[in-house]
Amino acid sequence: MRLQGKKAFITGGNSGIGFATAKLFVEEGAEVFITGRNQETLDEAVKLLGANAHGFRADVTDSAARKQVFKQIADQFGRLDVVFANAGIGGNTPAGTTTEELFEQIISTNLTSVFFTVQDSLPYLNEGASIILNGSVIGTLGQPAYAAYAASKAGLRALARSLAADLSPRSIRVNVVAPGATKTPIWGRNGRTQEQLNGLEQQLSKLIPLGRMGEAEEIAKAVLFLASDDSSYVQAVELFVDGGFTGTPFGGAAGRL
């Protein structure tokens, strides 16, 4: 098992990619600590993950809560080997009608809080630990009405490179996983019906060279690679897990003219 005896911390581990990663980490031998804002879904996730998982209710934008969670984990369980800064939010921010409040909320959650999650974890990380940031293809590709989200995810790429420079003397690796369109509950949170979700999946699948959306478990496997010793000489990279969409945007069915 690739994470036998390791301790891993995952923000937003109660749903989607975070939960799929927590599940895979447990299966690979890790003791996992997940955070989430919703106590009910957090409790359910811990129940499903089993005895080697522990849940902590915390908002990643809450400085005091972040610091308290890391101290509590260290006091009860010891130092960490993996940090997956996964939690983030979307948001429609078209040029011309976007409020400063919404723009700043997205940047604060997706970028600022990631930096401080990493910073707050540093006193509790083992030498040679692995830090993974959850980016997005939208940090590279231009998408209408997603300026704040795109800026936050592009910022993670630069953030990871600077953090890698800071932390390399401790042999701590910092990398980014950049998912493409992935099947997670987030797609249904704006009130889309199942019929609308099916139509969206069909539309997106035509754009993706591999002809389908990704599964959360597939992203989790990439995170596992970056967390484990399999990537012991991988530092400051952005790993796209997007069915080829970023590398060959005309490779999907819709682009084959």
Question: What are the defining features of this structure?
Answer:
single chain, globular, seven-stranded parallel beta sheet, Rossmann fold, 7 helices, alpha/beta
Notes on the structure:
This protein has 257 residues and is of the alpha/beta class. The protein has a single domain (7-191, 214-247), classed as NAD(P)-binding Rossmann-like Domain (Rossmann fold), CATH 3.40.50. Helix content is 42%, strand content 18%. It has helices at residues 16-27, 39-49, 63-77, 100-121, 147-167, 194-207, 216-227, and strands at 7-10, 31-36, 53-57, 80-85, 125-134, 173-179, 182-183, 214-215, 238-241. Helix 1 crosses helix 7 (216-227) and helix 3 (63-77) runs parallel beside helix 4 (100-121).
Mean pLDDT: 96
User: In CATH, what is the homologous superfamily?
Assistant: NAD(P)-binding Rossmann-like Domain
- Please give the domain count: 1
Element-level helix/strand string: EHEHEHEHEHEEHEHE
Rg, rounded, reads: 18 Å
Number-wise, the strands total: 9
Strand order of the largest sheet: 3-2-1-4-5-6-9
Model regions low in confidence, pLDDT < 50 over at least 5 residues: none
CATH top level?
A: Alpha Beta
In percent, how much strand structure appears in the residues? 15-25%
> What would you call the shape?
globular
How far apart are the first and last residues' alpha carbons, in Å? 45 Å
Label the CATH architecture: 3-Layer(aba) Sandwich
CATH topology: Rossmann fold
* Alpha-beta content class: alpha/beta
Helix content range of the residues, please?
40-55%
**Sheet of most strands:** 7 strands, parallel
- The total count of helices amounts to 7
Oligomer: single chain
